Amino acid sequence: MTNKRKIINDPVYGFLTIDDDLLYDLISHPYLLRESQIKQLGFTYMVYPGAMHSRFSHMLGALNLMNRAIDVLRSKGVTISDEESLGVKVAILLHDIGHGPFSHTSEHMLADIDHETFTLLFMQRLNEQFNGRLSTAISIFDDTYPRHFLHQLVSSQLDMDRLDYLARDSFFTGVSEGIVGTERIINMLNVTDDMLVVDEKGVYSIEKFIISRRLMYWQVYMHKTVIVADNIFYNIMRRARELYKPTDETSLLHFLTHRHSEADFRTDPSLLDLFATIDDNDVITTVKKWIHHDDKILRNLSSMLINRHLSAIKVGNQPVTSDLVDSLRERLCQLFDIDRTETEYYIGTGILRNNAYNFNDQEIRVRLKDGSILDISEASDQLDHRFLEKQVTKYYVYYPKELRQS
Amino acid sequence: MTNKRKIINDPVYGFLTIDDDLLYDLISHPYLLRESQIKQLGFTYMVYPGAMHSRFSHMLGALNLMNRAIDVLRSKGVTISDEESLGVKVAILLHDIGHGPFSHTSEHMLADIDHETFTLLFMQRLNEQFNGRLSTAISIFDDTYPRHFLHQLVSSQLDMDRLDYLARDSFFTGVSEGIVGTERIINMLNVTDDMLVVDEKGVYSIEKFIISRRLMYWQVYMHKTVIVADNIFYNIMRRARELYKPTDETSLLHFLTHRHSEADFRTDPSLLDLFATIDDNDVITTVKKWIHHDDKILRNLSSMLINRHLSAIKVGNQPVTSDLVDSLRERLCQLFDIDRTETEYYIGTGILRNNAYNFNDQEIRVRLKDGSILDISEASDQLDHRFLEKQVTKYYVYYPKELRQS
Amino acid sequence: MTNKRKIINDPVYGFLTIDDDLLYDLISHPYLLRESQIKQLGFTYMVYPGAMHSRFSHMLGALNLMNRAIDVLRSKGVTISDEESLGVKVAILLHDIGHGPFSHTSEHMLADIDHETFTLLFMQRLNEQFNGRLSTAISIFDDTYPRHFLHQLVSSQLDMDRLDYLARDSFFTGVSEGIVGTERIINMLNVTDDMLVVDEKGVYSIEKFIISRRLMYWQVYMHKTVIVADNIFYNIMRRARELYKPTDETSLLHFLTHRHSEADFRTDPSLLDLFATIDDNDVITTVKKWIHHDDKILRNLSSMLINRHLSAIKVGNQPVTSDLVDSLRERLCQLFDIDRTETEYYIGTGILRNNAYNFNDQEIRVRLKDGSILDISEASDQLDHRFLEKQVTKYYVYYPKELRQS
Amino acid sequence: MTNKRKIINDPVYGFLTIDDDLLYDLISHPYLLRESQIKQLGFTYMVYPGAMHSRFSHMLGALNLMNRAIDVLRSKGVTISDEESLGVKVAILLHDIGHGPFSHTSEHMLADIDHETFTLLFMQRLNEQFNGRLSTAISIFDDTYPRHFLHQLVSSQLDMDRLDYLARDSFFTGVSEGIVGTERIINMLNVTDDMLVVDEKGVYSIEKFIISRRLMYWQVYMHKTVIVADNIFYNIMRRARELYKPTDETSLLHFLTHRHSEADFRTDPSLLDLFATIDDNDVITTVKKWIHHDDKILRNLSSMLINRHLSAIKVGNQPVTSDLVDSLRERLCQLFDIDRTETEYYIGTGILRNNAYNFNDQEIRVRLKDGSILDISEASDQLDHRFLEKQVTKYYVYYPKELRQS
């Protein structure tokens, strides 16, 4: 037969099954293959050396969880047509396709577009190439498909995206605190009145999930060394943009020195293809080259990133005072014999924010045995509003290590 | 050499190393071998079929963690003499030796002594047999040894007992919610002013530990099916004691029908040896025999336990009213055509209680980078007093399944 | 609905799903619950303390693998009716139900029947109780069902029984050498001409499976300490049978002192129910009691087993000479001051035998990409006939430890 | 204190401990950081998406195993001085530092030097920078240190390099067939007459190790899709070298278009620093750029690699005949309308070879309980000479996919 059923080894789940020709053709498309060259966690490998896993593997992993979720829901009597099943699988497979290299930081540097818009641009382009076979997937993704719970499987507090990335990032960083009972949560999913809900027996697992997510947030996603690397990389891009006139020397420089809007991408189809050629390799190669750049600032910053001569960082519960920043700048001027304006490439501040459960976001709903629906904050004995609403805000300032020792 | 270095396979940690002759001789002693016939989690296997692991494997596991803890502390400059090292290892190895079969339930049924007292009785007896080589271990265990942190390694909020049983019970039940970063926590241990403390970097792991413990509590240790089995078993022992005159027919019956005090055990050394012959096998064999007992109540209860015709149970947040209990009894009298007094063997109530972190108990202290010491409730951004102090209390009533359907 | 869909935690696979009322009712039946009191690996826990897992958990595990195998085969276009699916699931669930306590050793001691016959007796009895709903299962089990590959899923070189017990025994002993890519093998199964075959891509996994099985054989199943314990237990039963007249004192003694044939079990239906009341608990309780028996031999043997004062054993590649046995007996007579006849309870010999791949047994067939079928010995580059046919035979003699030191 | 004790999360072992300032300074050195940008398994991620792990993580992993090996040997009474301990740790940490990007393929393309020589060049340079503190490490590495077993820990059939990469590659590819009982093997190591040996109890683990290595070889290291990617990449480099005159445009092009000998590197110290700036990123960035190269061949090959339009490959047990190659070339000429000389960039042949145990290489020696030493082929019942000596040789031919379909 022409069936392209494929089994792919995955260290997190053992096996991933690709059971449809469209899915098979999509994962062979250059737009997706490109994600195999983009790390899921950017510079996190500087702290957790195992965290080299690609966005590509996350896309496959989320697809795998979607396969299971559909099986579970169907076994509980939820009707999902084959068209819907394929649509929701394609939607989860492509949900992150808009991410560029180190996208956390580069997102608004390379274009005036966020990664969600890029995702839609890619999906629509692929839909043209595949003769409209992605239409259902797109409507599920942008929540215009009539059955809302399908969208929730792709994007909500309990979507397959989050379930996979928590499991995967925990696995590759080796941070066992982030281990989540993914399989159990999926087994507890159900649908009521077109809403994705969790069966009552799953409450404990949801509690664990919320807490693990929070711990991963602080221990991995907001790790202070990674924050520092991100800021240095941001300053590198900022400085490069100041130095370079619009140029097409490389794809990366093109996007760094032009400032394309969504309209540009829609007007000129070749732009998206050009954007699709950029990945982590271009970033690192370029920054390595800049270690020998004429501009001292770009040179210094590039060397700091590549040779991991990372800045010091202080994280605290109070906003960083301008007095502190001023005095750091002052000392840096003296120490390095530089202008005050130059110090802003080396010293900066920022805010980290996280709450366990965002009430503005979609809720996690629990279906009790008697059929009634409660929010997790009501259904849980362990987690109440006070805990869930608590927003942790931290403030940081980073500055050259040399200031620490003087 | 005569060195009895021994490596034992353990599914939780891979390997356990016994590196001292005394330890080797102890784990070959009948008092300890007996614990290989006593399940760590009693009747929990009725819900989690994998939970057949023995108290013996827990004792070895806790010893293994102690080995690591000593290595970590020594590498951080904490002085621990070889005598102290062996003492604290023996103490953790023997810390649970006082547990009898299904001891959660049988504890006060088989003697007027709790399991901690039994542990001391066994330790002292072994100390005689081993010519005083357990003296340091005993003083660490009963906290009379001058260096308090050694006792804390054996018994405190972060002792090797808890760290092992959470990891082990989570492993064998398959409840991934209970997975704790045991190795990371041990790596973060330190000693300040003779107190066991956690280095600041370990705060996240402690948060995860506290929460996992809480989830394990409700999902495993207080699982309602296990509560029912425990209650039925309790009623079986109660009824048997009413029916039997003091008898020596079997060791189990001896202790069930006599009521020995600690003084008895001290006066008559053979009593402890007799007690040491009882394990899970005697309990199950005896209850199986009672399925054919002349007494109808004992017969019924025994059959309910063995054939898992377990009672129904309702768990709620409000105390069970006497009205509800009365009406259940009333209906049972009619349904089974029995006396009202008989119903109390089939219907009963109880309370389940747990708070995340017991402030009356020892605290978990965190050492910040600046050397100051904080309680975890102050050092943690995620867990504050409100969360940690919150005590969850639940009330249950159990009754024959037949009442549910009528 | 009345659907009894049930999810059971299992440490090996995470979750087991029971998706049919008949399966649910079977796993609640006393005949099966009894297997939760029978250890899968008998006395192996004396060497591997984690190996306390029950035959019950193995039965559930094999059922779980069968669920997956059916899904895989159906996804490859193999037609399996719902009736057949349920039949083959029931067959694998019940395939080991004939095992009694420590059945490896006790098999021919408790009745003149092997455990396969007991399995059929139990199946037929259950079929009566469930009004013939097990008929398909029984015909698949005894290979009278027309579609042979269904039987092969239950009993062949690659049946779900073996795949589960290798994975499970490796998991609970902690012997990582036995880890098999169970999931991968099942993914590679297929059916050709009513034969279970392995797709060509699965050859490497089969090689690993054959070798792992061989290593598990020597490292676990034939571990010499376990062999010793088995022999002591055998001698205990032998001695007890000599001492006791036919008695009904306990179920265990009944079967030990009578000698029932298959005909007896068919004539008297109550016999099977009586047999079903015996489990590991009865064995250990009884042997513990015999530590105080009047008969010195029974007393000694029982103490050796319970207190693990196990015999010494020598395993070699040459048959044990009668000269060696004679001289051991001679020395034992002198050392213990006993009769020569008595020595045969303490000294004995035996043979251990294993080949990697039994050619008399069913073959493992591989389907190449071109559709042709080869035996694994031809399809594999690594394993050839010479390797696979090689039968390892070892000879052992055991004798009291005291002889070793004199 | 100034102690730079560091704990690094590692998904394979949980934790890695860096317990010496020299080790800490080395892993912060640009020469080593560079290895975090070089994948351990090159293009293997095209088949196993999880296999993105870096050589850096392997170097840390091997160091971790060395830590354990030293502990085990010392606990068995083998004297290892602190100087030797640090030396052998540094040696294993740096053992792979000579690897460049995709070094399997690029090794002789970028310089006339193999990676072992590069390793020595780097070690000697570092030794200068660290004032001779690496001298012991270097003498252990090049086997001039008097105690030979230390070298064997770094380079032999059972060195920490192999033990780590088998475990690590198995982990990240998700190929469970490669799982090896690493911890058990290390526990079984010992030293006799200055030779690294395995205690008799470790024979089973060694058998499993040899077989797992063999399976990993065919399932991962020699996976045919990876072989194809390697060949395409080789042809890309070959073609580029033909097209480019010596150029310094980028570091990669410098080395691709010059042909430096070991003498060059010794004469001009800056060459090694230049070489140290190249990593995987440069390779991918460059090949991506060549997709738009003027030269059609380079353009085609680059596109095939990046867009994974990989060649077809046939692997067989017989040498590929020149007739077959000729006919493939003929058909390609017609299909693509190209010259015959051009076909050699698209069509090629090669040999894959592996035997389980290389007798020319160092042996694995087993120490029996009686103290005698045997080779594993004699000590093992499972593996005999016939099996171990068996060399598997396969022959392959690759050619454009288009030829397959015509």
Short description:
The structure is a homotetramer of 406-residue chains. By secondary structure, chain A is an alpha+beta fold.
Name the largest protein-protein interface in this structure. Answer: A-D, 42 and 42 residues
- What's the arrangement of strands in the largest beta sheet of chain A? 3-4-7-8
Q: Give the fraction of residues assigned to helices of chain A.
A: 40-55%
| Distance between the ends of chain A | 72 Å
Assigned CATH superfamily of the domain at 6-222 in chain A: Hypothetical protein af1432
Q: Shape of chain A, please?
A: globular
Number of strands of chain A: 9
Return the average pLDDT of chain A rounded to an integer: 91
CATH class of the domain at 6-222 in chain A: Mainly Alpha
Low-confidence stretches of chain A: none
CATH architectural group of the domain at 6-222 in chain A: Orthogonal Bundle
Give me the Rg of chain A, rounded.
23 Å
Going by helix content, strand content and strand pairing, the class of chain A is alpha+beta
Q: Assess the beta-strand content of chain A as a share of residues.
A: 5-15%
The CATH topology of the domain at 6-222 in chain A turns out to be: Hypothetical protein af1432
* Main sheet properties of chain A: 4 strands, mixed
Which oligomerization state do the chains in this entry correspond to? homotetramer
The DSSP helix count of chain A reads 22
